[in-house]
Amino acid sequence: MATCYLGLGSNVGNKKKNILLAVKYLQKSKGIKVEKVSRLYESSPCGCPAGSPDFLNGAAKIRTSLAPLALLKELKNIERCLGRKKAKRFFPRPIDIDILFYANKKVNLPNLKIPHPRLKMRDFVLTPLKEISPGIIKKIASEVKTIKDIPSMRAFLAHARKNMSIGFVPTMGYLHDGHISLIRQAKKENDVCVVSVFVNPLQFGPKEDFKKYPRDLERDSIKAQSAGCDVIFVPEERQMYPDSYCTYVNVDKLTGTLCGASRPGHFKGVATVVCKLFNIIQPDVAYFGQKDYQQALVIKAMAKDLNMPLKISIMPTVREADGLAMSSRNSYLNLSERAEAAVLYQSLQQARKNIFSGEKSSKAIIGDIRKAILKKKSAKIDYIAVADADTLESRDSVHGKALIALAAWFGKTRLIDNILL
Ligand code: AMP
Fold this sequence. Notes:
With about 425 residues, the chain is an alpha/beta fold. About 35% of the residues lie in helices and about 25% in strands. The chain has helices at about 15-30, 70-80, 125-130, 135-140, 150-160, 175-190, 215-225, 235-240, 260, 265-280, 295-305, 335-340, 345-355, 360-375; strands at about 1-10, 30-35, 40-45, 55-65, 95-100, 105-110, 110-115, 145, 165-170, 190-195, 230-235, 285-290, 310-315, 380-390, 400-410, 415-420. The N and C termini lie far apart (about 60 Å). About 40% of the residues are buried. Adenosine monophosphate (AMP) binds next to α6 and β12.
C-alpha cells in the first residue's frame, strides 16, 4: 500500500457537497483507504477566465494498492460520476481531484506528473496539505537552500561570484505573486537567484505592525523555490543589528513626501537594511516592485550616490483579479474591507481615463479619487498625491512623467498603490 496525497477542489454547484461526495466515492473505491481529510478552504480562482466563481479546496491523505495510472483512472471515474465533463484546464468544474504525491515516486508521463508540478505555487494546495501533513510541507520547504547567518551567506556566494551573475530580491516574506514575479525575473536574467526574507524592525514605526507582520518561512521557501530561487537568506535580527549597532543610511531627497511624510524614519530603515543586504550579497542586479515606487527610487538614489556596482530593476505591480495590488498586508483585511480595497486601483484607473480625456488639474484628479475612496465604509485616506515621477515633488497639474500615488486605511490596514503617467 502506498501513501498518497490528493488535492480536491470545486467551483460549481454545491461545492462543499461535491467535495464531500468525492471523499465518499474515494472511501468506497476498491484499493483506496481514506486516512485523513483536511478542512475546506475558500480561494479565488487562479488562471480561470474572468468572473469565474471562487473555489473550495481541500486535501486528503489516502493509502492505496492501485498503481499511479490506475489511481488516476479511478479519480477520473469519480470526477465523471460527480458530473465533470471533459473541459479545458482552467474552466469551472464541479470537482477536481489531483494526485499531489504518490509515496516517494516521481512520474513524468504526458497525462500524469507526480509530484504535482504546480503544487508549490498554490496556497490552496499548500494550506490544506500543511493541515494534514506538516511533515510533508517541512520536507518540500527544505528542498531549497536556506542560510541564516551572514558569514555562511558570504561564503556560499564567494564561489558563485567567480563566474556567475547574481540576481537578488529583498523581501519581508509572506510571499505572493508580486514577489514571485521579481524572483522569476531575477532567475531569468541571472545564473543565481538569491531571495532574502527579513522583517526589518528598523523600517516600522513604534505604533506600526512589526510584531503582527505575517511570517511563514516554510511557505515562503516553497513558493520561492517554485519561482527559481536558488538560496534564501534569512538573517537573524541579532546579526543584522547587534547591540553595538550605530550606522544608518539617510537618503536626503525623495524621502520627505508621500509615505516618507506619513511614516517618519521608514525610508532610513529601508535604505539601511537594503544597503546592508547589498553589502552581504553583492548582487549584479537587485529587483524591486513598482508597487513601492518611492522605495525603489530611494534605493536607486542610494546605490548611485554610494557608488554601489549594481543595477536596480523595477518590475510592474502584480494585481489581484479586481485590481488590488498584491501585498502581504492584504491578509489583514476582512472580507468587506478586502472587497472595498479594490477601489484604490479602480479610482487610479478612472483618474488615468480622465487625464487622457483632458483633465490636467491635480486638485480635480485628487478630489475625484478622494470621493471614490470615501464612498467605502471602512476607508480612511492617508494621502493622495500627484507628483513628478523622478523627483516626487508635488505638481499642480499633470504633464510629462507624472506619478499618482496614494495610501489609505481599510479598517486597521494601511495599503498603498500608484500609477505612472
Ligand atoms: P515586501 O516584502 O513588501 O518588502 O516587498 C518586497 C519587494 O516586492 C519590494 O520590492 C516590493 O515592491 C515588491 N512587491 C510587493 N508587492 C508587489 C506587487 N504587488 N507587485 C510587484 N512587486 C511587489
